[in-house]
Amino acid sequence: MSEMWNSVAPAWEANAGFVDGHLEAATRALVRAAGVSAGAAVLEVAAGPGGAGLAAADIVGASGSVLLSDDAPEMVAAATRRAAGRPNVTTAVFDQTNIEAPDGSFDAVISRHGLMFADDTAATVREAVRVLRPGGGYAAMTWGPRAENPWLGLVLDAVGDQFGVPFPPPTIRGPFALEDARDLATALEDGGLTGVLVERVQTPMHAGSVEEWWDRVPKFAGPVAMALAAMEQEIRDAIAQRAMDSAAAAARHGSDGIVLDGAVLIASGRAPG
């Protein structure tokens, strides 16, 4: 998994501002759900280039601290560059399933689109609970139902339809692995959190055109980027046309181009004690 995310780290870094803008309202909700406040010690797991953690850093201020972590070294390198000049932010390479920190180290743990890729979601939450102080907050953002996220679902559909099989395969954890709010809540409850809540936030994606949308999204969608890179140009072109035709039919038109629907789920809870 880390090899895949290493391969798309340059695209994630190049598009970090766009992603943070796309998820601005949802990230505010994520940080709020985790109870992040001034002076808090915050950990972002599966951080990629660190967008959610950097948003938390603005809230915790000089008296607080944020640690951005990921198991992909190239993602952490990107997060480190983005955090330059912020003395309250540090970075580290470790997996969300094996956090390199003592018990009770943090007031809050946040995860923006990382939990759904964990093989054992409850165990992953349990590891986050371990490093939380009693009563500390945990919040995880995942994509909502695939049907409510055509900005990404249409990309995956185009690849799958090209070959007549689901993409990603059912045996591989994909971006919609926790699209069901009940499954997401169960992962947090089984991980040991109390007072679990799940909220839904709309995250529409804006693009100048379907061509601009296609040019951007597959580059940082890890499984798609790797799959496309291994294909012949003719096949890539066919998939691109299939995807853009579908996006043109699904998109709404706005003053600045097109809008494709999107939605996330934000689940949160508190560590016992």
Fold and architecture overview:
- With 273 residues, the protein is α/β, with parallel strands linked by helices.
- It has eleven helices and ten strands.
- It has helices at residues 2-14, 16-22, 24-33, 51-60, 73-82, 121-130, 150-163, 181-190, 210-220, 222-229, 233-250, and strands at 41-45, 65-70, 89-93, 106-112, 132-143, 194-202, 205-207, 252-254, 257-260, 263-270.
- The strands form two sheets. Strands 3-2-1-4-5-10-6 form a seven-stranded mixed beta sheet, sandwiched between helices.
- A hairpin with a 2-residue loop joins strand 8 (252-254) and strand 9.
- Helix 1 (2-14) crosses helix 10 and helix 3 (24-33) crosses helix 4 (51-60).
- The protein starts with a helix and ends with a strand.
- The model has no long low-confidence stretch (mean pLDDT 95).
- One of its GO terms (molecular function) is methyltransferase activity.
- Keywords: Methyltransferase, Transferase.
- Pfam families: Methyltransf_25 (PF13649).
Secondary structure blueprint with pairings:
Blueprint: H1 2-14, H2 16-22, H3 24-33, E1 41-45, H4 51-60, E2 65-70, H5 73-82, E3 89-93, E4 106-112, H6 121-130, E5 132-143, H7 150-163, H8 181-190, E6 194-202, E7 205-207, H9 210-220, H10 222-229, H11 233-250, E8 252-254, E9 257-260, E10 263-270
Distance between the termini: 34 Å
Rounded radius of gyration (Å): 18 Å
Q: What is the CATH H-level superfamily?
A: Vaccinia Virus protein VP39
Q: Proportion of β residues?
A: 15-25%
Shape field: globular
Question: Which strands sit side by side, in order, in the main sheet?
Answer: 3-2-1-4-5-10-6
Instruction: Domain count, please report it.
Output: 1
CATH architecture classification: 3-Layer(aba) Sandwich
Order of helices and strands: HHHEHEHEEHEHHEEHHHEEE
The average pLDDT value, as a whole number, equals 95
* DSSP helical segment count: 11
The CATH topology comes to Rossmann fold
Based on secondary structure, the structural category is: alpha/beta
Count all strands and give the number. 10
- CATH class value: Alpha Beta
Low-confidence stretches: none
Q: How would a textbook summarize the main sheet?
A: 7 strands, mixed
**What is the percent of helical residues?**
40-55%
